[in-house]
Amino acid sequence: MITKIEQLTAEIGNLRANNAEEAEQLRIKYLGRKGVMNDLMEEFRTVAPEQKRELGQKINALKQLITAKINELKDAVATEANSNDSVDLTRTPYPIQLGTRHPLTIVKNEIVDIFSRLGFTLAEGPEVEDDWHVYSSMNFADDHPARDMQDTFFVEARPDIILRSHTSSVQARVMETQQPPIRVICPGRVYRNEAISARAHCFFHQVEGLYIDKNVSFTDLKQVLLLFAQEMFGSETKIRLRPSYFPFTEPSAEMDISCHLCGGKGCSFCKHTGWVEILGCGMVDPAVLEANGIDSTVYTGYAFGMGIERITNLKYQVKDLRMFSENDVRFLDEFKSAN
Ligand code: PHE
Predict the structure, then answer these.
(1) Fewest CB within 10 A of the end CB: N or C in the chain?
(2) Is any ligand 1 atom within 6 A of the Cβ of residue 208?
(3) Beta bridge partners of 277
């Protein structure tokens, strides 16, 4: 039996395995229930008692040797499997996370797209503006409350330099450099000194439209806005104009669309009225045309302005305005399909 143990000890040193399966086969051959070590133990039972001590120690040592050897072989083939040699270079790569357009950009693009199909071109102006373009040229009286510090952000040390509180300032910039016909759409960010909450923010986005030519009438305005509403919210959308007041338009109106969630029947979204407000509009006040160098005896025009956040909320029911500026990717991800 001693010779057998010595033979096995020598044999173990030379064991080789090329892969995990071969290593497992060796384990079964030596350490398995019907394996070599098991046979040896069977034989050990028949050994004379005085030899048991010495042989027992040798068998234990052999078993430890085999176990260590097989573990070593298993580790070796496992490391090999993970090494670069076995990386599958033909495997398709992990998907790359795609970014999404911001919902306000998606909706702004949609609005601009609708009006550009109607012949409007894009115009932009500065966000840091002077009082003339934001207020005076737009026919705001010197004591108009919108000029108040509660609404307007002033640039320190320059009381005439402000952050624009509406995109109507771009109207003024277009009129002072172009003669009619003028047909522009002006998207941009505006600022108002409001406490930030779910329903108000100190900055938001507007799209302003301006059309000036000979014989432009309120009917033209109404038709263009109806077309816009139906393109944006569906062909069954109805509009309604309510008289309103803006310093730069006369007459002025606010436009509602039939609630697209309940189809005008009344729901909690439209406060059971069947209508939701979406924009302000009107015929450009002749005083505004004159202030900006356009002959009001020859030309007439209309203007309208809407909040992009408002339109986005109507389309996507975003409950909290702050979501738009928090950059939470979980929120932005929801607009993947709208891109
Ligand atoms: N400038 C107005 C506002 O900020 C919107 C408006 C634009 C109304 C053009 C009429 C005409 O509320």
Answers:
(1) C
(2) yes
(3) 256
pLDDT tens digit sequence for 273-324: 999 999 999 999 999 999 999 999 999 999 999 999 999 999 998 889 999 9
- Note whether 269 and 332 are same-domain residues: yes
Does ligand 1 have an atom closer than 6 angstroms to the CB of 313? no
Q: Are residues 114 and 200 in the same domain?
A: yes
Domain carrying residue 30: 2-85
Residues 81 and 109 in one domain: no
- 183 touches ligand 1 (CB under 6 Å): no
The reply to whether ligand 1 has any atom less than 6 angstroms from the CB of 314 is no
Q: Give nearest CA residue, ligand 1 atom 10.
A: 281
309 C-beta closer than 6 A to ligand 1: no
Please determine, for residue 109, whether its predicted confidence score (pLDDT) is greater than 90.
yes
Residue 20, Cα to own-chain centre: how many angstroms? 47
Q: Which of 118, 80, 322 shows the shortest CA–CA distance to 229?
A: 118
pTM: 0.73
The verdict on 113 and 81 lying in the same domain is no
Counting Cβ atoms within 10 Å, is residue 97 exposed (0-12), middle (13-18) or buried (19+)?
exposed
CA of 249 to the centre of ligand 1 (A): 9
